[in-house]
What does this fold into?
Amino acid sequence: MSNQNGHLRMQQQHSVKLLLPEIKEILRDKDYSLLKVALKECNPIGLAGCWQNFTEEEQLQIFSVLPGKSALSLFEVLEIEDQRKLLEKLSEDSVTPLLNNLDLPDVAKIFHKMSSRNVRKMRNLIKRQKALAHVDLLMQYPHHSAGSLMHPEFIKLEPKMTAKQALSVLSAITRPGEKEHLFALFVVDEESKVLGSLTLQDLLSVPENEKLSELMTSVEDFKLSPVTDQEEVAKIFTRFDLNSAPVVDKDGKLIGVLTVKDIINVERQEATEDIAKMVGTASTDIRQPSVLRALFYRMPWLLVTLGGGMFTSYIIKSFEPVLAKVIALASFSPLLAGMGGNVGAQTATIIVRSIALGQLNKESDRVKTILREIRVGLMLGLGYGIALGFLAYALYGDRYHWQFSFCVAFAMFTSMAGAAFLGAVEPLLFHRVGIDPATATGPLITTITDILTNLTYYTLATILLMNM
It folds into this structure.
């Protein structure tokens, strides 16, 4: 189903791209009547996918001519930063229906990105006092925490109810647009403490007189604190294969609900952050229009790489006598460092992903995984080292005999085995001291691998080849 949805989204985006030149021309001519007609052919999801093709002024013009329902559909699928910019530039008449029809957690996410002054201004446009109180509740919790993501409006059922009574309650209080909450049903006691959960399917598949106390499932293993970080929440949803989870206060009282729909967005954000960190940048760099800001995000780890590269150059310079005597050594140096860097990145990616999925919480699992990756590195190093040794002998054996081949083979073995060890251990060490393990991959591991590989390679060459 997700593949079908993704394919449909791509089709919708492609159809909007076909109309882009026409829409651009209409915007230049400021023909808003014709713009309304052209936008009727555009699906909101497809339009959101092409949103960055328009300038901020054009985005504002497009949004201003969309009918209310289409404007809301488009707004809901835009990135948070784009939503914030629109809210700050649109008129109050346009902003008010958006704020009053958005899901409350989505409103809180946008408010977290706004200045205090703009938040106060937007709060005054929310008409329902209950909704405003719920938004204020969500804003109390840290950004990217379970409390800031939860739905504070939910359905509570009592354990003494029968299935028939519960269905009657659902039918009476569920409003249009809240159907997703039907998949997050929780049974609470008189003090609102969570006792268990059930689904709509449970209610429909049992006798009408079945008591909820007998039907409900325990939620003790996945009650969430409102201050739990969203990454940890995503791990819990994955581990227990959840469709929903309760958010409870320190007394165990139900204060909100999280659904799998919320967590899919979280996992997308976390995956984007990890991918960006693995190559030494930030997630905001992926859609950053500013060249200066992009430079700011990328420079720190590139400076680390530069420093490591300069140190590697110094190492090579220190072995200039053997390099001048056996110039063939230089032909294998890039290959050795490159193969080690690739193995390190592969291993680190596997470890970081395992940590993100909560698969390495136990010490025994961590030790087992490290040993497995070391064995893989040793076997890869041995296999490629032998193969490269034979190649080196075929090319230079008549001049430098077996000593040269051994240097190349052993350096390849050391490079790949060492990189596998670094790729396995560094992310776990970073995780243990509270640093995001994704930061350990990419530039850092590659730089350290280059240093160790060249140091091993040229030291061994000095010992074996200088007296030839």
Remarks:
- Residues 1-12 have pLDDT under 50 and may be disordered.
- The first strand starts at residue 155 and ends at 157.
- The two ends are 67 Å apart (CA to CA).
- Residues 283-465 form a domain with the Tetracycline Repressor; domain 2 fold (CATH 1.10.357.20).
